[in-house]
Amino acid sequence: MRTNKILTIIFLLLNPVISFAQLTLTVEINELRNNNGNVLYELFDQKHKSLKVGNKDITNNKCVIVIENLKPGKYGFNYIHDENKNKKLDTKMLVIPKEGFGYSNNPVAKFGPADFEKWIFEMKDNTKLNCKVTYLNY
User: Fold this and answer.
1) How big is the CA angle at 123 (ends 55 and 58), to the nearest 5 degrees?
2) Residues 47-65: what's their mean pLDDT?
3) Cβ atoms of residues 82 and 99 within 8 Å
4) pLDDT-based confidence at 95, cuts 50/70/90?
5) Which CATH number among 1.20.1070, 3.40.50, 2.50.20, 2.60.40 corresponds to the domain 22-132?
6) What span, in angstroms and rounded, lies between the C-alpha atoms of 101 and 88?
7) Could you tell me the CA-to-CA distances from 82 to 35, 102, 107 in Å, in that order?
8) Extents of the domains making up the chain
9) Nearest C-alpha neighbor of 77 from the set 11, 26, 21
């Protein structure tokens, strides 16, 4: 009986630690076509609510973004290679991106943005995503 009480107390003490675990997301974006500009990114929760927006410099045609203090859950991540640092995705003919872009899970996006459901990923532990940027050459 005493053992059950002790186990219950330990569980109650550890439960807040478990439920409030602070995780780290590392996103590595490879094969950027140059080191010009930077990468603009946005992290969303599973309901498509924006949680974090930022930018990161490019080195050796690669960008590594680290986002700390995340809770376990489902997230989505997108980014653009803002080559001229004007803080937007430049397009030609009004809709065709001239700069690179991408999403977590690397879904294909040919005629408009990829469906949000395709770029949701789950974090249970510290997570590393390897993303490949897309450049459209129409």
Assistant:
1) 25
2) 98
3) yes
4) confident
5) 2.60.40
6) 11
7) 10, 12, 20
8) 22-132
9) 26
Q: For residue 41, which of 84, 108, 95, 101 has the smallest C-alpha distance?
A: 101
Torsion of CA 12, 18, 22, 28, to 10 degrees: 180
Q: How confident is the model at residue 14 (pLDDT cuts 50, 70, 90)?
A: low
CB contact at 8 A, 57 and 37:
no
- Write down the number of H helices and E strands in the chain: 1, 10
Question: For residue 123, what pLDDT band results from cuts at 50, 70 and 90?
Answer: very high
The CA distance from 65 to 55, in Å, is 9
- Mean pLDDT in residue range 42-70: 98
Q: How far apart are CA 138 and CA 133, in angstroms?
A: 16
Read off the pTM.
0.83
Q: Are 102 and 59 in contact (CB under 8 A)?
A: no
The answer to whether 22 and 68 are in contact (CB under 8 A) is yes
